[in-house]
Design goal:
- The complex is a heterodimer of chains A (about 350) and B (about 325).
- Chain A is built from 13 helices and eight strands.
- Chain A has about 350 residues and is α/β, with parallel strands linked by helices.
- Chain A has a single domain, classed as Rossmann fold, CATH 3.40.50.
- The longest helix of chain A has 26 residues.
- Chain B is of the alpha/beta class and about 325 residues long.
- Chain B has two domains: about 180 residues, Thiamin diphosphate (ThDP)-binding fold, Pyr/PP domains (Rossmann fold); about 120 residues, Rossmann fold, CATH 3.40.50.920.
- Chain B has a five-stranded mixed beta sheet with strand order 9-11-10-13-14, sandwiched between helices. In chain B, strands 5-7-6-12 form a four-stranded mixed beta sheet.
- In chain B, helix 10 links the parallel strand 13 and strand 14.
- In chain B, helix 8 crosses helix 12 and helix 9 packs across helix 10.
- Classes of the chains: A alpha/beta (about 350), B alpha/beta (about 325).
- Bound molecules: thiamine diphosphate.
């Protein structure tokens, strides 16, 4: 009996826009000038919000905050492919995705200031709350998309998570369930190469995260996560495939340029040199180079954007800070649909 | 030396590791980073081959620790925050706590699961909980919560040397709140022994963790002579200390941050009812967290027990 190869697998890498801003025209997705400008604007808005949030935190005006600096293309490229009716399960670092779903900035900031009201979105935003326990929400995305299938809705679902999350059992259970039940779900792993202090090569010995899909009989692809066009293209295709009952794992290769959160000091575990190398691959610079070559960009256009977004965010901060303080009785009100006698008694205790 | 809670725990870990080569530390960010609260700072540098940064998987961390323990090592896993113990509950409840019994003593699991716990640091969701009841309720586990640096060192050393699984909760609110003299020489504080922090005849207040200090603040100018018991070990409970005290004072208040329903206070009240009911002069009062999810920072203070609530409970108990 010979020992023979019975299956072979390939892992693909998709990149469309290079670091100089040149695109591979064969792979360039269909996007008009307006679409591209919209993507650029959302990436800029995400970055300016992120900078502002860090500043507010330093001034004691915001709680612990998780920066998404450097990951804007993974957020905007993928979220741009979503239909309005599609649904999203983020983890906790997806500022750009929340902005793409038009979540009001004041509300989003209110959450990071420690106010539960910040997570009460309108139903038609079609995005779920932040989930702090790493990896746990992928199963919710699985169930949500399963319900889409059972109810014969033509919607799909995206769930976002980090490289660290792929070590949790819940990730593997969600992947397996999704594949077995053929649900309309897209897994987007933002491989930003760190889980707090742990580099991805100590998180997994697999050469890519994309290949983890193979074990579940699922399609997986690695995408340049700092390339907004590649992210868009891969997500668009994955959403279409998902609606036919074929889930996908997208590994977006990117880099977390900031500290893990405002409580972290990344100098303890990585070099400035490494961070600077990734600065050169900045997703916004890349898109700007492309737009400039296509006459979609001019300095005064960007200056205008900076001004407009700064004002918009300052307004939102003002609104967030003048929000009426939440009341003590609220802490009891959302435990059940109705207050139990026990909770009523505790609510009235002063 | 003068040490805060973080330093005292670090000292205990370091000294025990020096002495006992079978001790291994593992968990998320416990190595190069020294832990998110810096509790394991410097240990990776000192004991390179016995401190492991693990992949991000709590069930993996605790489940592997059980295996390490079964093969003769002494694992001290860290779970980064109490809220992330939940993925490891299966390993703790279904296995760590039961293996001695299942194997009729052939195997035991000398494991210390360390985790920061409790609120009061203005954190995100799942970073402010007090889940001790789940563990106290599980047969086969011991549960320890120090209230001060001196005790933390002595209790942790006892926990490490204990042949059975111990859940060691570190009240993160007081990680750096104060320093006190912590001897560099080795000493232990036995598990299962409460500490009478202050003697008194009028009333017994029983508490643990960060609430010991708050309780002392609350009674500072009290006109009553109040006895304060710091439980230190929640399981096994020092029932003698509790019953002795209540038999003398006839009045009792229990303070904890965990939710009220089935919090440790319930068990203590049941115990007193069974064994010392006839000594009671007044109904026992509980000052605890409410039966709700710990609110985010803006509303968190309304969840917490506080000095006012403790004082009110004192007035109530003394009014009988
Ligand atoms: C179950 C669980 N364990 C631990 C933590 C603490 N924690 C928060 S984020 C994080 C690292 C997450 O890494 P990754 O999944 O790569 O996402 P990233 O932070 O890089 O976006 C850890 C350990 C948590 N939130 N949940």
């Amino acid at each position: 009996m010979p020992k023979e190869v019975i299956h072979q697998f390939n892992v693909e890498f998709l990149s469309v826009l290079d670091e100089k801003g040149k695109v591979d025209s064969k792979l360039m997705p269909k996007l008009n000038g307006e679409n591209i400008k919209k993507m650029f604007e959302l990436m800029k808005l995400t970055r300016i919000l992120d900078e502002k949030a860090l500043k507010l935190q330093r001034e004691g005006r915001l709680g612990t905050y998780a920066s998404c600096l450097g990951q804007e293309a993974t957020h905007i490229g993928s979220a741009f492919a979503l239909g309005k009716e599609d649904f999203v399960f983020p983890s906790f670092r997806e500022q750009g995705v929340y902005l793409s779903r038009n979540i009001p900035i004041d509300q989003y900031l209110a959450y990071w200031k420690g106010d539960e009201r910040g997570m009460k979105f309108t139903k038609d935003a079609n995005i779920f709350t932040v989930s702090i326990p790493v990896g746990s929400h992928m199963l919710h995305a699985m169930g949500y998309s399963w319900a889409c299938k059972i109810k014969k809705e033509s919607r799909a679902v995206i769930t976002y998570f980090g490289d660290g999350a792929t070590s949790e059992g819940d990730f593997h259970e969600a992947m397996n369930f999704a594949s077995v039940f053929e649900v309309p779900l897209v897994f987007i792993c933002q491989n930003n190469q760190y889980a707090i202090s742990l580099p991805v090569n100590k998180q997994t010995k697999a050469q890519t995260i994309a290949q983890k899909a193979i074990a579940y009989g699922m399609y997986g692809i690695r995408v340049d996560g700092n390339d907004v066009f590649a992210m868009y293209r891969a997500t668009k295709e994955a959403l279409e495939r998902a609606k036919k009952g074929k889930p996908t794992l997208i590994e977006a290769l990117t880099y977390r340029r900031g500290d893990h959160t405002t409580s972290d000091d990344s100098k303890k575990y990585r070099t400035d040199r490494e961070v600077n190398q990734w600065k050169k691959k900045d997703p916004i610079d890349r898109l700007r180079n492309y737009m400039s070559s296509k006459k979609l960009w001019a300095q005064d256009y960007e200056d205008e954007l900076d001004k407009k977004f700064n004002e918009e965010i300052d307004e939102a901060v003002k609104k967030m800070e003048s929000l009426e303080a939440p009341k003590r009785e609220e802490i009891f009100n959302y435990m059940y649909s109705e207050l139990t006698d026990n909770l009523k008694e505790q609510q009235n205790e002063k | 030396m003068k040490a805060n809670l973080v330093q005292a725990i670090n000292m205990a870990l370091s000294q025990e590791m020096e002495k006992d080569k079978s001790i291994v530390l593992l968990g998320e960010d416990v190595g190069i980073d020294g832990g998110v609260f810096r509790v394991t700072e410097g240990l990776f540098q000192k004991y390179k081959d016995r401190v492991f940064d693990t992949p991000l998987a709590e069930s993996g961390i605790v489940g592997s620790s059980i295996g390490l323990a079964l093969n003769g090592l002494k694992p001290i896993p860290e779970i980064q925050f109490e809220g992330f113990l939940m993925p490891a509950l299966d390993q703790i409840i279904s296995h760590a706590s039961r293996i001695r019994n299942r194997s009729r003593g052939m195997f035991n699991v000398p494991l210390v699961v360390r985790s920061p716990f409790g609120g009061g640091i203005k954190a995100l969701e799942h970073h402010s909980d007090s889940p001790e009841t789940y563990f106290i309720h599980t047969p086969g586990l011991k549960v320890v919560i120090p209230s001060r640096p001196y005790d933390a060192k002595g209790l942790l050393i006892s926990a490490i040397r204990d042949p059975d699984p111990v859940i060691f909760f570190e009240p993160k609110k007081i990680y750096r709140a104060f320093k006190e003299e912590v001897p560099e020489k080795e000493y232990t504080i036995p598990l299962g022994k409460a500490n009478i922090i202050k003697q008194g005849e009028d009333l017994t207040i029983i508490t643990y963790g960060s609430w010991v200090r708050e309780t002392l603040k609350a009674i500072k100018d009290s006109k009553y002579n109040i006895e304060v018991i710091d439980l230190r070990t929640l399981k096994p409970l020092d029932t003698k200390a509790i019953l002795n005290s209540v038999s003398r004072t006839g009045r009792c208040i229990i303070v904890h941050e965990a939710p009220k329903t089935l919090g440790l206070a319930s068990e203590i009240i049941a115990l007193i009812n069974e064994k010392e009911l006839l000594s009671l002069e007044a109904p026992i009062q509980r000052v605890t967290g409410y039966d709700i999810v710990v609110p985010l920072p803006k509303l968190e203070k309304y969840y917490m027990p506080n000095i006012d609530r403790i004082k009110k409970a004192i007035d109530k108990v003394m009014s009988f």
